[in-house]
Amino acid sequence: MIRLLPSTLFGRLVLILLGGLFLAQLVGAAILLRARATALYETSGRYAVQRVAGIVHVLDDMSTDQRRLILPALNSAGLRVAFTAAPPGEPALSENSFATTHLRAALHRALGEERNVRIAVVAAEAVPAVLHGPPPPHMGHMMPSPHMGFFGGPPIRNASFLVQAQLRDGNWVSIAHQLPEEEFAWPVKLLLTLVVLLVSVVALSLIAVRWVTRPLAVLGRAADELGRDIQRPPLDESGPLEVRRAAQAFNTMQARLARFLRDRAHLLAAVSHDLKTPITRLRLRAELLENDELKAKFVHDLDEMETMARTTLDFLRDANAHEPVQLVDVNALIESLQADADELGQQVQIQGSATSPYAGRPLALQRCLRNLIDNAVKYGKRATVHVNDNDARLEIIVADEGPGIPERQLEQVFEPFFRLEPSRNRETGGVGLGLSIARDITRAHGGDLVLRNRASGGLEAVLTLPR
Asked: What is the pTM of this model?
Protein backbone atom coordinates (compact mmCIF):
# COMPACT_ATOMS: atom_id res chain seq x y z
CA MET A 1 0.00 0.00 0.00
CA ILE A 2 1.37 3.42 -1.01
CA ARG A 3 1.96 5.70 1.96
CA LEU A 4 0.15 8.98 1.32
CA LEU A 5 1.32 10.85 4.42
CA PRO A 6 4.98 11.58 5.17
CA SER A 7 6.47 9.64 8.06
CA THR A 8 7.79 12.70 9.93
CA LEU A 9 5.78 15.29 11.85
CA PHE A 10 7.58 18.04 9.91
CA GLY A 11 6.52 16.51 6.59
CA ARG A 12 2.89 16.10 7.70
CA LEU A 13 2.63 19.66 8.99
CA VAL A 14 4.19 21.01 5.80
CA LEU A 15 1.80 18.94 3.68
CA ILE A 16 -1.24 20.15 5.62
CA LEU A 17 -0.14 23.80 5.55
CA LEU A 18 0.82 23.78 1.89
CA GLY A 19 -2.37 21.97 0.92
CA GLY A 20 -4.49 24.43 2.88
CA LEU A 21 -2.62 27.46 1.57
CA PHE A 22 -2.78 26.26 -2.02
CA LEU A 23 -6.51 25.57 -1.74
CA ALA A 24 -7.10 28.95 -0.11
CA GLN A 25 -5.11 30.72 -2.83
CA LEU A 26 -6.97 28.80 -5.51
CA VAL A 27 -10.37 29.74 -4.08
CA GLY A 28 -9.23 33.33 -3.51
CA ALA A 29 -7.98 33.61 -7.09
CA ALA A 30 -11.27 32.22 -8.38
CA ILE A 31 -13.26 34.75 -6.34
CA LEU A 32 -11.05 37.67 -7.37
CA LEU A 33 -11.06 36.77 -11.06
CA ARG A 34 -14.81 36.20 -11.04
CA ALA A 35 -15.39 39.54 -9.33
CA ARG A 36 -13.01 41.23 -11.76
CA ALA A 37 -14.76 39.73 -14.79
CA THR A 38 -18.16 40.79 -13.48
CA ALA A 39 -16.91 44.31 -12.75
CA LEU A 40 -15.40 44.59 -16.24
CA TYR A 41 -18.65 43.52 -17.85
CA GLU A 42 -20.64 45.96 -15.77
CA THR A 43 -18.23 48.83 -16.42
CA SER A 44 -18.01 48.12 -20.13
CA GLY A 45 -21.78 47.67 -20.25
CA ARG A 46 -22.46 51.03 -18.59
CA TYR A 47 -20.10 52.75 -21.02
CA ALA A 48 -21.76 50.98 -23.95
CA VAL A 49 -25.22 51.89 -22.65
CA GLN A 50 -24.31 55.56 -22.40
CA ARG A 51 -22.81 55.59 -25.88
CA VAL A 52 -25.66 53.61 -27.51
CA ALA A 53 -28.32 55.71 -25.76
CA GLY A 54 -26.68 58.88 -26.98
CA ILE A 55 -26.60 57.60 -30.57
CA VAL A 56 -30.26 56.52 -30.44
CA HIS A 57 -31.35 59.93 -29.10
CA VAL A 58 -29.39 61.70 -31.85
CA LEU A 59 -30.84 59.45 -34.57
CA ASP A 60 -34.39 60.00 -33.27
CA ASP A 61 -34.21 63.68 -34.31
CA MET A 62 -32.75 62.99 -37.79
CA SER A 63 -34.40 62.24 -41.09
CA THR A 64 -33.58 59.21 -43.16
CA ASP A 65 -31.26 61.22 -45.45
CA GLN A 66 -29.47 62.74 -42.48
CA ARG A 67 -28.99 59.32 -40.92
CA ARG A 68 -27.51 58.02 -44.18
CA LEU A 69 -25.06 60.93 -44.23
CA ILE A 70 -23.96 60.52 -40.62
CA LEU A 71 -23.62 56.73 -40.86
CA PRO A 72 -19.95 56.79 -42.07
CA ALA A 73 -19.05 58.99 -39.12
CA LEU A 74 -20.73 56.64 -36.65
CA ASN A 75 -18.96 53.54 -37.98
CA SER A 76 -15.63 53.94 -36.26
CA ALA A 77 -13.19 51.61 -34.58
CA GLY A 78 -15.10 49.45 -32.13
CA LEU A 79 -18.54 50.68 -33.25
CA ARG A 80 -20.75 49.43 -36.08
CA VAL A 81 -24.18 50.90 -36.95
CA ALA A 82 -26.78 49.70 -39.48
CA PHE A 83 -30.37 50.74 -40.28
CA THR A 84 -33.32 48.53 -41.26
CA ALA A 85 -36.89 49.43 -41.97
CA ALA A 86 -38.28 46.08 -40.82
CA PRO A 87 -37.60 44.48 -37.43
CA PRO A 88 -34.21 42.73 -37.58
CA GLY A 89 -33.73 39.06 -36.76
CA GLU A 90 -33.38 37.89 -33.20
CA PRO A 91 -29.95 38.42 -31.68
CA ALA A 92 -27.68 35.42 -31.41
CA LEU A 93 -28.08 35.11 -27.62
CA SER A 94 -31.12 34.93 -25.39
CA GLU A 95 -31.93 38.11 -23.54
CA ASN A 96 -32.14 36.17 -20.27
CA SER A 97 -28.37 35.77 -20.01
CA PHE A 98 -26.41 37.34 -17.16
CA ALA A 99 -24.60 39.74 -19.50
CA THR A 100 -27.72 41.09 -21.21
CA THR A 101 -30.08 41.35 -18.25
CA HIS A 102 -28.28 44.29 -16.62
CA LEU A 103 -27.57 45.94 -19.96
CA ARG A 104 -31.22 45.69 -20.98
CA ALA A 105 -32.37 47.23 -17.72
CA ALA A 106 -29.88 50.08 -18.06
CA LEU A 107 -30.96 50.77 -21.66
CA HIS A 108 -34.62 50.86 -20.71
CA ARG A 109 -33.80 53.39 -18.01
CA ALA A 110 -31.88 55.51 -20.53
CA LEU A 111 -34.31 55.15 -23.49
CA GLY A 112 -37.60 54.56 -21.74
CA GLU A 113 -39.60 51.46 -21.01
CA GLU A 114 -41.83 51.87 -24.06
CA ARG A 115 -39.01 51.54 -26.59
CA ASN A 116 -38.42 48.17 -28.21
CA VAL A 117 -34.89 47.03 -27.41
CA ARG A 118 -33.07 43.77 -28.03
CA ILE A 119 -29.65 43.02 -26.60
CA ALA A 120 -27.04 40.27 -27.04
CA VAL A 121 -23.34 39.59 -26.55
CA VAL A 122 -21.90 38.16 -29.75
CA ALA A 123 -18.52 37.28 -31.17
CA ALA A 124 -16.95 40.03 -33.24
CA GLU A 125 -16.87 37.89 -36.38
CA ALA A 126 -20.64 37.44 -36.16
CA VAL A 127 -21.38 41.18 -36.09
CA PRO A 128 -21.58 41.73 -39.91
CA ALA A 129 -24.03 38.85 -40.33
CA VAL A 130 -26.21 40.09 -37.49
CA LEU A 131 -26.20 43.71 -38.69
CA HIS A 132 -26.95 43.00 -42.36
CA GLY A 133 -28.84 39.72 -42.31
CA PRO A 134 -30.60 37.10 -40.19
CA PRO A 135 -28.68 35.62 -37.29
CA PRO A 136 -26.63 32.50 -37.99
CA PRO A 137 -28.64 29.31 -37.38
CA HIS A 138 -25.87 27.60 -35.46
CA MET A 139 -24.73 28.40 -31.91
CA GLY A 140 -21.06 28.87 -32.69
CA HIS A 141 -21.21 32.64 -32.37
CA MET A 142 -23.16 32.67 -29.16
CA MET A 143 -21.06 33.98 -26.32
CA PRO A 144 -21.09 32.62 -22.77
CA SER A 145 -21.92 34.75 -19.79
CA PRO A 146 -19.14 35.95 -17.47
CA HIS A 147 -19.83 33.01 -15.16
CA MET A 148 -18.57 30.51 -17.75
CA GLY A 149 -14.98 31.66 -17.79
CA PHE A 150 -12.09 29.67 -16.28
CA PHE A 151 -12.12 30.39 -12.52
CA GLY A 152 -14.68 33.11 -13.28
CA GLY A 153 -11.98 34.97 -15.19
CA PRO A 154 -12.23 36.78 -18.53
CA PRO A 155 -13.99 34.34 -20.86
CA ILE A 156 -14.74 36.55 -23.87
CA ARG A 157 -12.24 37.86 -26.38
CA ASN A 158 -13.19 39.89 -29.48
CA ALA A 159 -16.73 40.26 -28.10
CA SER A 160 -19.32 42.95 -28.84
CA PHE A 161 -22.49 44.22 -27.18
CA LEU A 162 -25.18 44.14 -29.86
CA VAL A 163 -28.16 46.47 -29.35
CA GLN A 164 -31.20 46.58 -31.67
CA ALA A 165 -33.51 49.51 -30.89
CA GLN A 166 -36.61 50.94 -32.64
CA LEU A 167 -36.49 54.67 -33.46
CA ARG A 168 -39.44 57.05 -33.17
CA ASP A 169 -40.29 56.79 -36.88
CA GLY A 170 -40.54 52.98 -36.63
CA ASN A 171 -37.23 52.18 -38.27
CA TRP A 172 -34.70 49.98 -36.48
CA VAL A 173 -31.05 50.65 -35.75
CA SER A 174 -28.52 47.92 -34.91
CA ILE A 175 -25.47 49.04 -32.97
CA ALA A 176 -22.52 46.72 -32.19
CA HIS A 177 -20.16 48.09 -29.53
CA GLN A 178 -16.95 46.08 -29.35
CA LEU A 179 -15.51 45.46 -25.91
CA PRO A 180 -11.87 46.57 -25.50
CA GLU A 181 -9.86 43.35 -25.68
CA GLU A 182 -7.24 44.54 -23.24
CA GLU A 183 -9.89 44.64 -20.54
CA PHE A 184 -10.36 40.89 -20.88
CA ALA A 185 -6.71 39.86 -20.92
CA TRP A 186 -5.49 37.77 -18.01
CA PRO A 187 -4.63 40.07 -15.07
CA VAL A 188 -0.91 39.38 -14.96
CA LYS A 189 -0.26 41.78 -12.09
CA LEU A 190 -3.03 40.25 -9.99
CA LEU A 191 -1.80 36.72 -10.66
CA LEU A 192 1.79 37.75 -9.96
CA THR A 193 0.65 39.28 -6.65
CA LEU A 194 -1.07 36.03 -5.70
CA VAL A 195 2.04 34.02 -6.60
CA VAL A 196 4.30 36.30 -4.54
CA LEU A 197 1.88 36.05 -1.62
CA LEU A 198 1.75 32.25 -1.91
CA VAL A 199 5.54 31.91 -2.06
CA SER A 200 5.99 34.24 0.91
CA VAL A 201 3.43 32.40 3.04
CA VAL A 202 4.90 29.02 2.08
CA ALA A 203 8.42 30.15 3.03
CA LEU A 204 7.21 31.54 6.35
CA SER A 205 5.22 28.35 6.99
CA LEU A 206 8.28 26.17 6.39
CA ILE A 207 10.32 28.29 8.78
CA ALA A 208 7.55 28.20 11.40
CA VAL A 209 7.08 24.42 11.11
CA ARG A 210 10.81 23.81 11.36
CA TRP A 211 10.99 26.11 14.37
CA VAL A 212 8.11 24.27 16.07
CA THR A 213 9.26 20.71 15.32
CA ARG A 214 12.97 21.24 16.00
CA PRO A 215 12.59 20.93 19.82
CA LEU A 216 10.84 17.58 19.30
CA ALA A 217 13.75 16.33 17.21
CA VAL A 218 16.22 17.53 19.85
CA LEU A 219 14.19 15.81 22.58
CA GLY A 220 14.09 12.58 20.55
CA ARG A 221 17.86 12.59 20.04
CA ALA A 222 18.39 13.31 23.74
CA ALA A 223 16.16 10.38 24.73
CA ASP A 224 18.10 8.09 22.39
CA GLU A 225 21.44 9.28 23.78
CA LEU A 226 20.15 8.89 27.34
CA GLY A 227 19.77 5.16 26.77
CA ARG A 228 23.46 5.00 25.85
CA ASP A 229 24.93 7.50 28.28
CA ILE A 230 23.09 8.53 31.42
CA GLN A 231 25.72 11.22 32.03
CA ARG A 232 25.06 13.05 28.76
CA PRO A 233 24.89 16.88 29.02
CA PRO A 234 21.44 18.19 30.03
CA LEU A 235 19.17 19.86 27.50
CA ASP A 236 19.29 23.61 27.04
CA GLU A 237 16.27 25.04 28.87
CA SER A 238 15.48 27.89 26.51
CA GLY A 239 12.84 28.81 23.96
CA PRO A 240 9.05 29.00 24.31
CA LEU A 241 7.39 28.11 27.60
CA GLU A 242 6.26 24.64 26.45
CA VAL A 243 9.75 23.80 25.16
CA ARG A 244 11.37 24.98 28.40
CA ARG A 245 8.97 22.88 30.47
CA ALA A 246 9.67 19.78 28.37
CA ALA A 247 13.44 20.33 28.67
CA GLN A 248 13.16 20.85 32.42
CA ALA A 249 11.10 17.67 32.82
CA PHE A 250 13.62 15.71 30.75
CA ASN A 251 16.58 17.05 32.71
CA THR A 252 14.82 16.27 35.99
CA MET A 253 14.14 12.71 34.83
CA GLN A 254 17.77 12.29 33.78
CA ALA A 255 19.03 13.57 37.14
CA ARG A 256 16.73 11.19 39.04
CA LEU A 257 17.83 8.22 36.93
CA ALA A 258 21.49 9.09 37.43
CA ARG A 259 20.97 9.44 41.19
CA PHE A 260 19.12 6.13 41.32
CA LEU A 261 21.92 4.35 39.45
CA ARG A 262 24.56 5.89 41.72
CA ASP A 263 22.67 4.82 44.83
CA ARG A 264 22.25 1.33 43.43
CA ALA A 265 25.94 1.07 42.59
CA HIS A 266 26.89 2.12 46.13
CA LEU A 267 24.45 -0.37 47.61
CA LEU A 268 25.70 -3.20 45.41
CA ALA A 269 29.31 -2.35 46.23
CA ALA A 270 28.48 -2.66 49.91
CA VAL A 271 26.64 -5.94 49.36
CA SER A 272 29.55 -7.24 47.31
CA HIS A 273 31.97 -6.48 50.13
CA ASP A 274 29.71 -8.02 52.74
CA LEU A 275 29.28 -11.21 50.68
CA LYS A 276 32.98 -11.67 49.98
CA THR A 277 33.87 -11.54 53.67
CA PRO A 278 31.78 -14.56 54.85
CA ILE A 279 32.69 -16.52 51.70
CA THR A 280 36.38 -15.96 52.44
CA ARG A 281 35.91 -17.05 56.07
CA LEU A 282 34.10 -20.20 54.97
CA ARG A 283 36.86 -20.97 52.46
CA LEU A 284 39.50 -20.69 55.22
CA ARG A 285 37.52 -22.95 57.51
CA ALA A 286 37.04 -25.47 54.70
CA GLU A 287 40.81 -25.71 54.35
CA LEU A 288 40.98 -26.92 57.96
CA LEU A 289 38.78 -29.93 57.26
CA GLU A 290 40.62 -33.24 57.41
CA ASN A 291 38.11 -35.13 55.25
CA ASP A 292 39.32 -34.49 51.69
CA GLU A 293 36.04 -35.55 50.10
CA LEU A 294 34.03 -33.21 52.34
CA LYS A 295 36.63 -30.49 51.83
CA ALA A 296 36.28 -30.76 48.02
CA LYS A 297 32.51 -30.43 48.23
CA PHE A 298 32.79 -27.34 50.43
CA VAL A 299 35.30 -25.72 48.08
CA HIS A 300 33.11 -26.52 45.05
CA ASP A 301 30.05 -24.96 46.67
CA LEU A 302 32.03 -21.91 47.75
CA ASP A 303 33.43 -21.46 44.23
CA GLU A 304 29.91 -21.65 42.82
CA MET A 305 28.61 -19.15 45.39
CA GLU A 306 31.46 -16.75 44.63
CA THR A 307 30.89 -17.04 40.87
CA MET A 308 27.17 -16.47 41.26
CA ALA A 309 27.69 -13.47 43.54
CA ARG A 310 30.33 -11.88 41.29
CA THR A 311 28.36 -12.46 38.08
CA THR A 312 25.09 -11.28 39.57
CA LEU A 313 26.64 -8.13 41.00
CA ASP A 314 28.35 -7.37 37.69
CA PHE A 315 25.04 -7.77 35.92
CA LEU A 316 23.17 -5.51 38.35
CA ARG A 317 25.93 -2.96 38.63
CA ASP A 318 26.64 -2.85 34.88
CA ALA A 319 30.31 -2.22 35.51
CA ASN A 320 30.89 -0.78 32.03
CA ALA A 321 27.99 1.67 32.07
CA HIS A 322 30.29 4.67 32.55
CA GLU A 323 33.00 3.51 30.15
CA PRO A 324 33.78 6.30 27.65
CA VAL A 325 32.85 5.82 24.00
CA GLN A 326 35.78 5.52 21.61
CA LEU A 327 36.60 4.09 18.21
CA VAL A 328 36.96 0.32 18.45
CA ASP A 329 38.87 -1.82 15.95
CA VAL A 330 36.26 -4.57 15.68
CA ASN A 331 38.51 -6.84 13.62
CA ALA A 332 41.32 -6.68 16.21
CA LEU A 333 38.82 -7.23 19.03
CA ILE A 334 37.40 -10.40 17.46
CA GLU A 335 40.87 -11.68 16.57
CA SER A 336 41.99 -11.23 20.18
CA LEU A 337 39.01 -13.29 21.35
CA GLN A 338 39.92 -15.92 18.77
CA ALA A 339 43.49 -16.02 20.09
CA ASP A 340 42.24 -16.44 23.67
CA ALA A 341 40.03 -19.32 22.52
CA ASP A 342 42.93 -20.97 20.68
CA GLU A 343 45.00 -20.96 23.87
CA LEU A 344 42.19 -22.85 25.58
CA GLY A 345 41.95 -25.36 22.74
CA GLN A 346 38.64 -23.98 21.46
CA GLN A 347 37.74 -23.72 17.79
CA VAL A 348 36.74 -20.24 16.63
CA GLN A 349 36.65 -19.14 12.98
CA ILE A 350 36.19 -15.63 11.58
CA GLN A 351 34.48 -14.81 8.27
CA GLY A 352 34.24 -11.27 6.93
CA SER A 353 35.57 -8.09 8.45
CA ALA A 354 34.51 -4.62 9.53
CA THR A 355 35.28 -1.88 6.99
CA SER A 356 35.88 0.84 9.60
CA PRO A 357 36.21 1.27 13.38
CA TYR A 358 33.02 1.34 15.44
CA ALA A 359 32.26 4.05 18.03
CA GLY A 360 31.46 2.12 21.20
CA ARG A 361 32.68 0.97 24.63
CA PRO A 362 35.56 -1.46 24.06
CA LEU A 363 35.40 -3.43 27.32
CA ALA A 364 31.63 -3.79 27.12
CA LEU A 365 31.77 -5.00 23.52
CA GLN A 366 34.55 -7.41 24.40
CA ARG A 367 32.49 -8.82 27.25
CA CYS A 368 29.42 -9.14 25.01
CA LEU A 369 31.26 -11.00 22.24
CA ARG A 370 33.14 -13.17 24.72
CA ASN A 371 29.85 -14.31 26.26
CA LEU A 372 28.45 -15.20 22.83
CA ILE A 373 31.59 -17.04 21.71
CA ASP A 374 31.85 -18.92 25.03
CA ASN A 375 28.23 -20.02 24.73
CA ALA A 376 28.76 -21.18 21.13
CA VAL A 377 31.88 -23.17 22.00
CA LYS A 378 30.43 -24.57 25.22
CA TYR A 379 27.13 -25.76 23.80
CA GLY A 380 27.86 -26.06 20.08
CA LYS A 381 31.40 -27.52 19.83
CA ARG A 382 32.82 -24.66 17.78
CA ALA A 383 32.03 -21.01 16.96
CA THR A 384 32.00 -19.22 13.62
CA VAL A 385 31.93 -15.43 13.70
CA HIS A 386 30.46 -13.73 10.60
CA VAL A 387 31.06 -9.99 10.25
CA ASN A 388 28.88 -7.94 7.87
CA ASP A 389 29.47 -4.21 7.71
CA ASN A 390 27.94 -1.34 5.74
CA ASP A 391 27.22 2.37 6.13
CA ALA A 392 23.99 1.74 8.07
CA ARG A 393 24.93 -0.98 10.55
CA LEU A 394 27.50 -3.46 11.81
CA GLU A 395 26.24 -7.03 12.07
CA ILE A 396 28.12 -9.78 13.92
CA ILE A 397 26.71 -13.33 13.82
CA VAL A 398 28.10 -15.97 16.17
CA ALA A 399 27.02 -19.43 14.96
CA ASP A 400 27.53 -22.85 16.53
CA GLU A 401 26.83 -26.48 15.63
CA GLY A 402 24.90 -27.43 18.75
CA PRO A 403 21.39 -28.78 19.19
CA GLY A 404 19.76 -25.35 18.99
CA ILE A 405 16.97 -24.03 21.20
CA PRO A 406 13.21 -24.69 20.96
CA GLU A 407 11.51 -21.83 19.11
CA ARG A 408 9.30 -20.97 22.07
CA GLN A 409 12.37 -20.42 24.28
CA LEU A 410 14.49 -18.30 21.92
CA GLU A 411 13.41 -15.16 23.74
CA GLN A 412 13.08 -16.70 27.17
CA VAL A 413 16.79 -17.53 27.41
CA PHE A 414 17.56 -13.80 27.67
CA GLU A 415 15.83 -13.64 31.05
CA PRO A 416 18.27 -13.44 34.01
CA PHE A 417 19.12 -16.80 35.65
CA PHE A 418 17.17 -18.78 33.04
CA ARG A 419 18.90 -22.05 32.04
CA LEU A 420 17.89 -24.74 29.63
CA GLU A 421 17.80 -28.19 31.18
CA PRO A 422 19.49 -30.63 31.07
CA SER A 423 22.07 -29.50 28.50
CA ARG A 424 22.73 -26.13 30.10
CA ASN A 425 23.11 -26.49 33.85
CA ARG A 426 25.57 -25.47 36.49
CA GLU A 427 27.78 -28.46 35.78
CA THR A 428 28.65 -26.89 32.44
CA GLY A 429 29.28 -23.51 34.10
CA GLY A 430 27.38 -20.26 34.18
CA VAL A 431 24.39 -19.03 36.11
CA GLY A 432 22.16 -17.92 33.22
CA LEU A 433 23.31 -14.31 32.93
CA GLY A 434 25.63 -14.41 29.90
CA LEU A 435 22.97 -13.72 27.26
CA SER A 436 21.22 -11.17 29.48
CA ILE A 437 24.44 -9.22 29.89
CA ALA A 438 25.21 -9.47 26.15
CA ARG A 439 21.78 -8.11 25.18
CA ASP A 440 21.97 -5.29 27.72
CA ILE A 441 25.34 -4.21 26.34
CA THR A 442 24.06 -4.38 22.77
CA ARG A 443 20.96 -2.33 23.54
CA ALA A 444 23.05 0.20 25.47
CA HIS A 445 24.81 0.80 22.12
CA GLY A 446 21.48 1.35 20.38
CA GLY A 447 21.42 -2.10 18.76
CA ASP A 448 19.82 -5.46 19.50
CA LEU A 449 20.67 -9.12 19.96
CA VAL A 450 18.44 -11.99 18.83
CA LEU A 451 18.81 -15.76 18.59
CA ARG A 452 17.62 -17.98 15.77
CA ASN A 453 18.01 -21.61 14.83
CA ARG A 454 19.99 -22.40 11.71
CA ALA A 455 18.39 -24.40 8.93
CA SER A 456 21.49 -26.62 8.73
CA GLY A 457 21.49 -27.18 12.49
CA GLY A 458 22.82 -25.21 15.39
CA LEU A 459 22.13 -21.79 16.79
CA GLU A 460 23.27 -18.33 15.79
CA ALA A 461 23.30 -15.14 17.81
CA VAL A 462 22.75 -12.06 15.60
CA LEU A 463 24.20 -8.87 17.07
CA THR A 464 23.24 -5.67 15.20
CA LEU A 465 24.83 -2.30 15.98
CA PRO A 466 23.82 0.96 14.23
CA ARG A 467 26.56 2.98 12.58
From this structure: 0.48
